[in-house]
């Protein structure tokens, strides 16, 4: 209660000071000065931003400096306001009593804090974190300028709730939340920088790059949480109750989450699947994209991206088309008539496959005779490609189209439905017994067979 009374007395003192200023002629003079200078600074800022571009001031500079120049240019109006108001306040202090420019000093301090917070918070790319940091910093700056920061902190810390050995107060919650946001943002920014550096390391395989990046991110986030809690003054021994609750939650509700996390680490460690591989798991076929902590994305040729839990790659059978080599063998079948030369058909099939750009010459395509059918000869064409990520069905279609043109050019005939096929099917039907027309044609189970058949 004493702290709350201190806050009330501080507010009352501020109101009394403001009341004394209201009765003075200098209050409307200061307000008019602030309004006029604010209007002039706004117009000057718009004029400068319309004439000068941030890209013109920082050509070829690093990204951080370019962003800093852009933020300064965005707040150039407020900076001009601070400069003009500072000059005016200095002149008034020299010409009159310092108390006659009290409101100008407050406006200068608030505007300076606004620019500093806008520039620093603008470096945060996350919109939510940017707004939270800006709001918190502006609140702290305003309370500090008005002399209400210490009484407010004391009031927020005057009451709380005891949980185990930990006393939770509004001030502790606010401090912990702000520190957690800042440290986690720094940890994520640092881990992103480390992952970009790892991606440029050509000596590391993609799976090792991803695994190292995930380990660095996990360690940085863990250190960020520990630093935030220790800086806020939380004793870790008081968190035994929460650690027990978290362990119970892991045992019951987070089994799949932990299983997917461990499975993801195993996949990255044993290099069975890595970004860029062409795989098929279950009904999904595509290229491995992002390997996250919980799932792995598989990009398909139809534009869809499947997010498959990491556990499925451990428990199910996975076909990795590019595990040890990028070469993939494909096959297609075709038939020719009996009056066509089978050796010429084989040579034409191999030439058709080699005419496609995506078909490699080594290993060389091969065409084998597979069967002598009732009306045609069966062949199987085998060929290799080394870019399955570009698609499988499209290259098989190209090979079949080239095969059609090559066989026609060489005079090799492909069987078509015709009279011979119809006669063969009719002869096959004549060899089959006629079905009974009705139930009277069926012999009874106990009737003797006729000796005449």
Describe the protein in words.
Helix 5 runs antiparallel to helix 6 (102-122). The strands form three sheets. A five-stranded antiparallel sheet has the order 6-5-4-3-7. The protein has four domains: 2-158, no CATH class; 172-253, no CATH class; 261-320, SH3 type barrels; 328-419, 2-Layer Sandwich (Alpha-Beta Plaits), CATH 3.30.70. The chain has helices spanning 2-22, 26-51, 54-57, 63-74, 76-95, 102-122, 127-145, 149-156, 170-199, 206-231, 240-252, 255-270, 310-315, 342-354, 393-410, 419-430; strands at residues 161-163, 166-168, 278-281, 284-291, 295-299, 305-309, 318-320, 328-336, 366-372, 377-385. By secondary structure, the protein is an alpha+beta fold. It has 16 helices and ten strands. Helix content is 58%, strand content 12%.
Summed up, the helix count is: 16
- What's the total count of β strands? 10
Strand order of the largest sheet: 6-5-4-3-7
Q: Strand percentage, roughly?
A: 5-15%
Mean pLDDT: 76
Short note summarizing the structure:
The protein is α+β, with helices and mostly antiparallel strands. The chain contains 16 helices and 10 strands.
Main attributes?
SH3 type barrels; five-stranded antiparallel beta sheet; 58% helix; three-stranded antiparallel beta sheet; 4 domains; 453 residues; alpha+beta
């Amino acid at each position: 209660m004493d702290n709350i009374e201190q806050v009330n007395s501080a507010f009352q003192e501020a109101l009394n000071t403001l009341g004394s200023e209201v009765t003075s002629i200098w209050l409307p003079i200061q307000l008019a000065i602030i309004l006029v200078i604010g209007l002039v600074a706004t117009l000057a800022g718009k004029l400068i931003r319309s004439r000068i571009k941030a890209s013109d001031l920082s050509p070829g500079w690093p990204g951080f400096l370019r962003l800093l120049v852009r933020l300064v240019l965005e707040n150039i109006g407020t900076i001009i306001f601070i400069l003009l108001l500072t000059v005016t306040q200095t002149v008034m202090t020299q010409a009159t009593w310092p108390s006659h420019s009290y409101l100008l000093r407050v406006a200068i301090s608030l505007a300076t804090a606004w620019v500093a917070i806008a520039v620093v918070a603008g470096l945060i790319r996350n919109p939510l974190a940017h707004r939270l940091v800006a709001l918190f910093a502006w609140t702290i700056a305003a309370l500090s300028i008005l002399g209400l920061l210490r009484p407010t902190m004391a009031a927020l810390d005057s009451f709380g709730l005891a949980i185990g050995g930990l006393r939770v107060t509004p001030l502790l919650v606010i401090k912990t939340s702000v520190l957690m946001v800042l440290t986690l943002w720094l940890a994520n920014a640092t881990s992103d920088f480390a992952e970009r550096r790892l991606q440029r390391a050509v000596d590391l395989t993609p799976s090792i790059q991803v695994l190292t990046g995930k380990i660095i991110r996990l360690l940085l986030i863990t250190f960020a949480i520990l630093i935030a809690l220790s800086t806020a003054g939380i004793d870790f021994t008081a968190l035994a109750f929460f650690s027990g609750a978290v362990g119970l939650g892991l045992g019951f509700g987070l089994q799949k989450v932990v299983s997917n996390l461990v499975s993801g680490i195993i996949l990255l460690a044993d290099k069975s699947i890595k970004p860029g591989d062409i795989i098929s798991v279950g009904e999904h076929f595509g290229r491995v994209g992002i390997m996250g902590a919980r799932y792995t994305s598989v990009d398909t040729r139809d534009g869809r991206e499947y997010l498959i839990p990491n556990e499925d790659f451990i428990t199910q059978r996975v076909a990795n088309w590019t595990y040890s080599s990028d070469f993939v063998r494909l096959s297609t079948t075709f038939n020719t008539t009996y009056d066509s030369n089978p050796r010429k058909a084989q040579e034409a099939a191999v030439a058709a496959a080699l005419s496609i750009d995506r078909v490699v010459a080594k290993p060389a395509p091969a065409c084998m005779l597979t069967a002598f059918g009732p009306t045609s000869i069966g062949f199987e064409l085998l060929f290799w490609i080394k870019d399955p990520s570009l698609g499988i069905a499209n290259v098989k279609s190209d090979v079949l189209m080239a095969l059609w043109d090559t066989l026609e050019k060489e005079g090799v005939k492909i069987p078509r439905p015709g009279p011979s096929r119809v006669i063969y099917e009719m002869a096959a039907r004549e060899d089959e017994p006629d079905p009974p027309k009705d139930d009277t044609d069926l012999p009874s189970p106990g009737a003797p067979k006729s000796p005449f058949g």
